[in-house]
Amino acid sequence: MKILNKKFDCIGKSELRIIAKELSAKIKQGYIIELIGGLGTGKTFFVKCICEYFKIKNVSSPSFNIFNQYNGKLNVFHFDFYRIKNKEELFNTGFYEHLSDDDAVKFIEWPNLIPEAIPVVNYRIYLDYCKEHKLKRNINIVCPE
Amino acid sequence: MIVLGIESSCDETSVAIITESQIKANLISSQDFHIEYGGVVPELSSRAHIQIITQLVRDTLKKSKLKLEDINLVCATAGPGLIGAVMVGYNFGKALAYSRQIPFIPVDHIEGHIFSGFLNEEKPQFPFLSLVVSGGHTLLLIVKSDLEIIKLGSTKDDAAGEAFDKIAKMLGLGYPGGPKIQEYAAKGNPDRFKFPIARLKNKYDFSFSGLKTAVYRFLTKNYSDIKLISNSDLSDIAASVQKSIVSALIEKVRLALKEHNIRALSLVGGVASNLNLRENLKEIAKNYEKQIVIPDFKLCSDNAAMIAYRGYKLYLNGKTFPLEYSCYPSLRSEMFV
After folding, report:
1. B120 and chain A: CB distance < 8 Å anywhere?
2. Residue at A34 is within a domain
């Protein structure tokens, strides 16, 4: 199934899980993956779905802690810029030391709040509410070249 | 024994000195530091902690009328938290203990919260049910002794405090969200709107992500712009949201009290400052004839007194840690038996 650079509109949780599985097979050590979407659009949920395929079960929202770390088949850093005010503050949290860890997969929620903070990204995942159905979402996984 | 505690796991830097369970001083950067130094804006950085910590230790000694030579034990938060921030207080504490040739105890921040009720005049009796609610954590635990903690449930997505903050932001109420929602909720009707309460496979687990989505949906459906929501509607929404969060928490507490042999109930963490939650839990404790212990407001937020106390108890239980023991960012599953 082609999942990259393709927009899926109004899909439910089970379809999101299938997309997460497809994507998890493509993710390699060191990858940087951004998740962009408003409050409650399912960014953390999608990270949780992907991480299940890495045998990681304890994914939760990093908004308050700024980042979570999980160990499974792959090591994962799960960042969240929600509470970060600017690039300098981000730098002072030690973010870049973790970002340069080539052994771990890095997920970043709310990257759009600190533009240009991340030099190179492997995948950028856009999530949005589906207007017609309250439990469904639009998803678009972009692979910037 | 005189114990110095250091906490720097998140926004706050805090230093405290206690003897047994008596607090001599418990200084918290945002509350106590700005007065003298013209304002410290909480900053999520290790640099902010570095700038404050030395002076905060000096001030704590001064307030306790003690000298550095009087300290017998140093305890510092080892995690979980923002690792760069944790490291500042942790390494400061370790170096301080090493230079004075006195013992150093790493303390888990969550364990600090769990046992913070013992800094109250009335101490919880074992086994007690502990509800830990903060911006980063939501846990329901049974604490059987100083060293036995059993996890009943935790949040599967957002923490309770995070739900308050994010929903407050959606409503345009500002930061910090918890106090703002509480303020509006006090004037509102909690039964006007029905927001969902998640029920999960493990009946003691929590989930607040769906509530966040439900509120978003509700707002976009009913209002074209959040700025146009009337104050009375805002109050009713805030009250209904608060009811949903508090109900989710107390529902699990009630269930645990029914199913487990528990003598007391303890509410800790930043969200323990929420008056509605406090009142509801007091009511439940009364109905079930259990002792209830909720620390003072200052001891609910992140503070070093709870770290000092927990470290002191670990020390009394004969726990020792090698100097290489390092700090950590995430919740330790080994914490639970």
Report:
1. no
2. yes
Sheet holding A104-109, edge to edge: A7-11, A137-142, A123-129, A32-36, A104-109, A75-80, A67-71
Nearest to B161 among A60, A64, A129 (CB): A64
Return the CATH number at A102. 3.40.50.300
A96 falls within a domain: yes
Give the burial class of A139: count Cβ atoms within 10 A of its Cβ; 0-12 exposed, 13-18 middle, 19 or more buried. Answer: buried
pTM of the model: 0.89
Is beta strand B138-145 parallel, antiparallel or unpaired with respect to B128-133?
A: antiparallel
The confidence score (pLDDT) of residue A83 equals 87
Asked if pLDDT for residue A129 goes beyond 90, the answer is yes
CA A41 to CA A139: how far, in whole Å? 10
The list of chain B residues with pLDDT below 50 reads: 34-41
Distance between CA B47 and CA B37 in Å, rounded?
16
Give the model confidence (pLDDT) of A72-112 as tens digits: 999 999 999 998 888 888 887 878 988 999 999 999 999 99
Any B CB within 8 A of A100 CB: no
Distance in Å, alpha carbon of A41 to nearest chain B alpha carbon: 7
* Number of domains chain A contains: 1
**Does A14 reside within a domain?**
no
Q: How many Å apart are CA A39 and CA B85, to the nearest integer?
A: 26
Residues of chain A positioned with their CB less than 8 A from the CB of B47: 92
Q: Looking at the domain assignment, is residue A17 inside a domain?
A: no
- Parent domain of A36: 27-124
CA of B167: which chain A residue's CA is closest? A39
Per-residue pLDDT reduced to its tens digit, A52-77: 999 999 898 898 888 888 999 999 99
Q: Are B322 and B33 in contact (CB under 8 A)?
A: no
B86 vs A contacts (CB less than 8 Å): none
CB B248 within 8 A of CB B156: no
Residues 6 or more apart whose CB falls under 8 angstroms from that of B35 comprise: none
Give which of A35, A58, A64, A96 to mutate to test B binding, by max B Cβ within 10 Å.
Answer: A64
